[in-house]
Amino acid sequence: MSRAYLQGSRKVAQVAIHMALTEFREQEKEYKEKYIKEGIYTAAVDYGGDFITSVHKIIERAVVAAKREGVIKEVHAEEGAVAGATREALSMIMPKAVGLNVGGKIGIARQNDHVIVAVFFGVGLLHLDEVAIGIGHRAVS
Question: CB count, 10 Å around CB of 97?
Fold first, then answer.
């Protein structure tokens, strides 16, 4: 499937997942420059810690990163869209992560009214990691 085929929220979801899967800051910067040429604003931020006690910190980091990188404006509706999409993404990995540590990255992408947050986390205890990905979408105008 070519990238030109992907439209709207599906394309933005793909970009958010790509951002969540980046390994290094240089790769984040490379992707950010690539996607801005397509009109897609992006951000990524690392996170690690105990899942249950960290949910609010993960949501805060997503909102702060989105504002810092210019993905959203500093207005209530757009901050709420990122917070809601992050919470939705976390709810998808919650069954695997309850009671365990998580570590990974949050990827955020926006094009026009589509805002998508993807979380990619290793979930586990010691070296016995599982991997999980969650994704959430909100529309803002």
Answer: 23
Size (the chain), residues = 141
Q: What are phi and psi of 127, to 5 degrees?
A: -100, 5
Provide the greatest CA pair distance for the chain. Answer: 43
In 3D, which of 119, 112, 132 has the Cα closest to residue 43?
119
d(C-alpha 48, C-alpha 54), whole Å:
8
Q: 62 in helix, strand or coil?
A: helix
The CA-atom distances, in angstroms, between 86 and each of 47, 116, 127, 128, 141 are 13, 8, 26, 25, 18
CA distances from 94 to 37, 88, 121, 132 (A): 34, 10, 11, 9
Give Cβ neighbours of residue 16 (< 8 Å, ≥ 6 apart). Answer: 42, 107, 108, 109, 116, 117, 118, 135
Best CA proximity match to 81, nearest among 45, 115, 128: 115
Per residue in 47-99, pLDDT (tens digit) is 989 999 999 999 999 999 999 999 999 999 999 999 999 999 999 999 999 99
